Amino acid sequence: MLRRILAAGLLFSALLVMSAPLSAQTKSVPGSRAEVELSFAPVVRQVAPAVVNIYAKRVVAQRSVSPLFDDPFFKRFFGEDFGLFGRPREKVQNSLGSGVIVDGEGLVVTNHHVIAGATEITVVLSDRREFPAEIVVDDERTDLTVLRVDTEGEALPSVPFKDSDQVEVGDLVLAIGNPFGVGQTVTSGIVSALARTQVGINDFNFFIQTDAAINPGNSGGALVTLDGKLIGINTAIYSRSGGSIGIGFAVPSNMVRTVVASARNGGRVVRPWIGLTGQTVDADLAEGLGLDRPGGVVVTQVYDGGPADQAGILKGDVILAVGGKPVNDLESLRFRVATARLGDRAKVEIRRKGETRTKTVTLPLVQAPETPPRNETLLKGRQPLAGAVVVNLSPALAEEIDRPGAWEGVVVTQIRRGSPAHRLRVRVGDVVVAVNRKEIRRVRDLEAVLRQPVGTWEITLNRNGRVRTLEVEG
Fold first, then answer.
1. Is 143 a catalytic residue?
2. CATH assignment of 377-473?
3. Does the active-site annotation cover 419?
4. N or C: which end of the chain has fewer CB within 10 A?
């Protein structure tokens, strides 16, 4: 009975506080859990002015004047140009997204997919002021873009970064953006999960998951903690209907910070390179390696003379942590390396022959080496690969095209339409492994073997890890 009386008294007191006139309440950034339970308004008031709308205008070719002309049935018989009736008409498309001001001098972060292909970008502040924007850094691999607006010396409101590694599952967060173009909207939720690596949104899969409602138009908006700091850029949702079902993903602020740093340093993204490749340790691998549980990355290849090699990391070592942060899979390792600062000395914890050891890897201040040079070459002549443009692979190129460990060989970068290579269905990204059973290491090797006339060509290609051999009559 006494407990019920006390509970009723506490509830009555809380209602009195919440029903008190606004003038009697002094709102500020919450400093305790009790204050958080009353209102998010102080946090919103602090952060919302730095969250902007992004309007991207792009010109596209309108392929037909009627949906009927896009029907595959007609295209099958009349060709892809059916319904064009001359030159395609240009049509202006407008897209809407969100962005976050991270520097009072005018740097704005948004998603790459918000502005992709845009010919004109406008940033609109919460007070309705509009600024034309230019792209400083457009990093498709992280799905992040940094824009700059000319403030003419005026300082804009901005949101400070917070170390995303300090966030825990269960922390309260706010998502701020412009869903469906209805205007700036704030939703609340919690951090549902961390280090989501199997999402498949960009090349560095490592996301904060939240149940704060995120909808179309929220892309590029802010995910903030209750101390008013940025922990992520809202990027994608898992949905079967197109609307929020409580599973949203944000790029962690530590990754955002590295891209913004590139914008401040000339606009060129240079990522740390560790010089190794590996494979996620699953249950089968863990058993074979004598580990008591799955997790970590087993090293499968080490670049001779690279940072990992110089630190003494060997093929077969299992990487367990980088910089004191656990590495559960290959995506986690890539994120930890990509978000390290250039020139840092990173402590890498490894498992070797049943013993745990620590190696110190110095991440270089320059990008991965481009050795050998690309030697871009258009293949010509009466042979099946004519019309393909090929280059030498190197660590730098492997990083650029997201082919980790593809440090040697020859890769196709372009295909001329209607050429023999096009008719053979060679694709951009194919690696030429061998021609007529002769191994291809450099472009010059490929050119030499293609000059030799033969009755039948045997071409071996590596396409996304799968090797296939084509036979073509000479």
1. yes
2. 2.30.42.10
3. no
4. N
